[in-house]
């Protein structure tokens, strides 16, 4: 059995892992998104079937030739949730098209929570300060 048939992909199709990475980076790069939230079923399934796999809070599903992305994320308190969702959809769509050459038919945003600015790794202001300090050095 060839590798190609086990992965059920033709050479022209982009790697699913590349698409997942692209979606994750684009979503996390959206102003107002604090983090991705893995679904419980995703965490359990991946730990059983693929030990060491990263649960990302992203589900890709395929129907025929159409690819749909469901993103499960948390938004920073004080941001306009509909605007953050719209911006995340736009960033993900553009990133997938430019980096992977993939058009996502649907990008569904599921806001699973709201984080206070200090609850995540760093608030937006702290992230900007770190970037500025890094650029000065």
From TrEMBL:
Region annotated Disordered, chain positions: 115-137
Pfam families membership: Asp23 (PF03780)
Basic and acidic residues compositional bias, start-end: 128-137
UniProt-listed InterPro entries: Asp23 (IPR005531)
Similarity-based family: Belongs to the asp23 family.
Protein name (record): Uncharacterized conserved protein YloU, alkaline shock protein (Asp23) family
Species: Eubacterium pyruvativorans
């Amino acid at each position: 059995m060839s590798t190609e048939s086990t992965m059920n992909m033709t050479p022209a199709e982009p790697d699913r892992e590349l698409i997942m990475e692209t979606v994750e980076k684009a979503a996390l790069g959206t102003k107002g998104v604090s983090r991705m939230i893995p679904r419980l079923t995703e965490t359990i399934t991946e730990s059983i079937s693929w030990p060491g796999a990263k649960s990302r809070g992203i589900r890709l599903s395929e129907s025929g030739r159409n690819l749909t992305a469901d993103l499960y994320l948390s938004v920073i308190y004080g941001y306009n949730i509909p605007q953050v969702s719209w911006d995340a959809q736009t960033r993900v769509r553009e990133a997938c098209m430019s980096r992977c050459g993939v058009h996502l038919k649907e990008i569904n945003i599921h806001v699973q929570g709201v984080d206070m600015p200090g609850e995540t790794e760093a608030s937006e202001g702290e992230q900007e300060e770190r970037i500025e300090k890094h650029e000065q050095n």
